[in-house]
Amino acid sequence: MNKIDDNLTKVTARIAQAALAAGREPQSVQLIAVSKTQPPSALQAAYAWGQRRFGENYLQEALDKQVSLSHLADIEWHFIGPIQSNKTRPIAEHFAWVHSIDREKIAQRLNEQRPAHLPPLQLCIQVNIDDETTKSGVTLTELPDLVAAILPLSRLQLRGLMAIPAASNNPEQQRSAFAKLRRAMEQIQATGVTLDTLSMGMSGDMDAAIVEGATFVRVGTDIFGARH
Ligand SMILES: *Cc1c(COP(=O)(O)O)cnc(C)c1O
After folding, report:
1. Among candidates 227, 184, 180, 177, which has minimal Cα distance to 206?
2. Gyration radius of the chain's alpha carbons
3. Which of 7, 80, 124, 174 to mutate to test the pocket of ligand 1 (most atoms within 8 A of CB)?
4. DSSP state of 217
């Protein structure tokens, strides 16, 4: 077994264990392999193991890898990085999911630019759960208006919320940030909006995220090793 195989097996077991401990079905938590800065050969190795969902942060790097890996037609590409408004078209054309929506303008452009032959672009709104001024994402106060603005856009399907909480080694602190995101989703659901996705949890905090209801965990380091 190569290292990436071994890591994927371990991460998948860890997801299953955290899910079962929380009384959840292991299949209710899906793994996104975050492959930013990794070469196409690393994604190819993960694919050969059976991984199909990949998350990328940098648009040009992602597009280059998509060309290199175009023979692997069933990869599901997730865009998880900050989005510049002049770069929306390739995102609308080349990804299945976007997790990092935090402005109405970006959503409108993606809606206009999503090709008709593709299914609606699947979206999560990124929430700045700790109100860190340096981080992207809407505040909890701004969230309802952005939800309302996105719902009528027919080429987009709003699925849920995403967050990157402040890094912490304390499991209680990790859980409390993820619980905030879960409660924010529950509040939107209570208004009659159907949402089914919580994109939260990375290598250092995925276990806490799963306890609080993560449906996607986005894992890079624990699969591919430290980034250079
Ligand atoms: C890099 C990144 C991850 C993965 O982080 P690791 O700590 O390497 O698992 C997850 N989500 C986002 C948005 C990222 O940028």
Report:
1. 177
2. 17
3. 80
4. E
Whether the predicted model's global pTM rises above the 0.85 cut: yes
- pLDDT tens string 20-72: 999 999 999 999 999 999 999 999 999 999 999 999 999 999 999 999 999 99
* Alpha helix positions (H), the chain: 3-21, 40-49, 59-68, 88-94, 104-113, 143-150, 171-189, 206-211, 221-224
CA distance 56 to 221: 13
CA of 191 to the centre of ligand 1 (A): 31
- For the CA of 222, the closest atom of ligand 1 is 9
* Residue to mutate, 202, 210, 227, ligand 1, most ligand atoms under 8 Å from C-beta: 202
